[in-house]
Amino acid sequence: MGLVDNVMVGKLGTAPLAAVSLGNSFIFMAMSVILGFSTGITPLVAAADSTGNYREGKSVLKNGLLLVTCLGIVLTVVIFGMRPLLYQMKQSDEVVELALPYLNVVAISLIPLAVFQALKQFADGLSQTKYSMWATVIGNVLNVILNYVLIYGIWIFPEMGIVGAAWGTFISRVFMAISMYWLIAFKPQFAPYFSQLWEERFKKNTIKNLNRLGFPSAMQMFFEFGIFTAAIWLSGTLGKNPQAANQIALNLSSMTFMFAMGLAVVATIRVGNQYGLKDFGELRRIARSLFLLILIMDVLFAIFFLIFNEFLPSIYLDVNDLENQLDNTEVIEISSKLLLIAAFFQLFDGIQAVVLGALKGMQDVKIPTAITFVAYWVIAFPISYGLGLEFGYGSQGLWIGLLVGLGVSAGLLLWRFRMVTSRELTARN
């Protein structure tokens, strides 16, 4: 969905693309909290499923859906309150003026996204991942159609520019939430959970467990998404073209990162199953297999970025636009260099995501949260700021800092996984 938005908006020019980047930077921060908190649902459902405890699974579903939806509403209000900050961030005036109306619409889409995410994480915990896949396919197809007619003004629809992309995102996320509920609520395998769901009492202990896992998980994603958001803001101080280039490289990296996120969900589910059964030998075998799988995939992605680093950015811009040719050429040149750096941090980014997923499956979240904070904000941010702004390396300096942070995070999280599993195996032997 992000790829479609960026490619279609990029055809309007570098300023609209930079505006989408700036507006989405606030959305990314809120999304990180929603996505992170909702992942607390999955290991609890997986553990309940492994022991056949339907009552506990139903309680996690209802309480989790309530908490995540309320979180989406609160974060939407917070974003509206933060809009004046756009004028205080030393961003291009042209970019800020374009970003504000875009942000006004796309912020509301956090509420249906929260509903979808809670239902998705519940289904994931039951190892039923195909339903969220179909819901996102529906959302993406709808997003393409809506973007096309609303951005460019096709048929009876007005030409709305990047605001059209925002409306496309909002409507698509509403349909994703509705589709997800419709796809799972009436299926026989979900019947024990949805039967008389709304009559289920809210349980203090379930809410406590969701907060125990959800809050640290939210902070993990907040720290990681936050460092990339900081890169967006810092690149904006360099000008609209570096910011647009940063958005292209970030969007492409995010596309490959989705494969890591998928395997991270698998790690949480499968490790969560074995954690519920207390079979730590099988747990470690499964986790190591997933670590190897993401490493192989990310090596292929790294090679792909190294080979096509100059071609990929051209997809986002109209290279035949003579009026904006100088801007487009500069953006392509900067983003192609960033993709060379992104090729190397593919390896670390995928590993740290899947290891985090495995640790969540073991309900180990506090130490990993501290690790992500140190890696991204104590180590990566000073390097990014120093190289990017103080020493004049610009966007490349910002991304070198990101590379270092991801490498440190991956290494420390692997150490944490080895330590925890070794301790459990020793205790049971």
Shape: globular
Q: Count all strands and give the number.
A: 0
Q: Strand pairing plus helix content: what structural class?
A: mainly alpha
In whole angstroms, the N-to-C terminal distance is 48 Å
**Succession of helices and strands:** HHHHHHHHHHHHHHH
Mean pLDDT: 87
**How many distinct folded domains?**
1
Poorly predicted runs: none
Largest sheet: none
Q: What is the number of helical segments per DSSP (H or I, 4+ residues)?
A: 15
Helicity level, as a percent range? over 70%
Radius of gyration: 21 Å
Strand content: under 5%
Verbal overview:
Helix 4 (54-82) packs antiparallel against helix 6 and helix 6 (110-125) packs parallel to helix 8. The protein has one domain (2-428). Helices cover 82% and strands 0% of the residues. The chain contains 15 helices and no strands. The mean pLDDT is 87. The longest helix has 38 residues, at 240-277. It has 429 residues and is an all-alpha fold.
Describe the structure using short key phrases.
429 residues; mainly alpha
Walk me through the topology.
Layout: H1 2-10, H2 14-38, H3 41-50, H4 54-82, H5 93-106, H6 110-125, H7 130-152, H8 162-185, H9 191-194, H10 204-236, H11 240-277, H12 280-308, H13 325-361, H14 366-390, H15 394-428
Helix pairs in contact: 1-7, 2-4, 2-5, 2-6, 2-10, 2-11, 3-4, 3-6, 3-11, 4-6, 5-8, 6-8, 7-8, 10-11, 10-14, 10-15, 11-12, 11-13, 12-13, 13-15, 14-15
